[in-house]
Design brief:
There is one protein chain. By secondary structure, the protein is mainly alpha-helical. It is 78% helix and 0% strand. The radius of gyration is 17 Å and the shape is globular.
Length: 179
Amino acid sequence: MEMRFWVRRVIVIALMIFACFLLQTTIFPRFEIAGVVPNVLIIITSFFGFMVGRKHGCIVGFACGIILDLFNSSLFGLYSLIFLVIGYINGVFRKIFFGDDMKLPLLFVGVSDLIYGMAVYFALFFFRHKLDIGFYFMNIMMPEMVYTICVMIPLYFVFEAVIRRLDQTDNKRSARKIG
């Protein structure tokens, strides 16, 4: 891939991550349901993992985690590690993903949000001897997962269109250069 295509792709992905961060921290808190907001950064991390691959999933996940760590983390690096692992896990399943099937992305995002919730619970609550996992699971993790899955449906089509457009543009320019 030519350098300018790569730079363009990085800029577009960075803008997508930033837009998701803004949605998660400014817009969606106004629409919280049952005290939770959807985790849009989990959606984009999972999307790049299962749609593009492990490497992109890890990079996007790490970038999402760093943003969260910088702006609202009591334990720096925690979110970076969690999101990186989630991006990698989703990337492992790229080979079984088919773009026209919505069931797998819904499952991947739901499981990713549960992994995120469990990791945050263990890192921030369990080790402080706050052992009420049932309460945390039913009142935080499950509502957040459902809300995240609901928000994922329209965002999936937007993300897919952006990636498809990037791939088509890169392929056309590469073909022009070869031909």
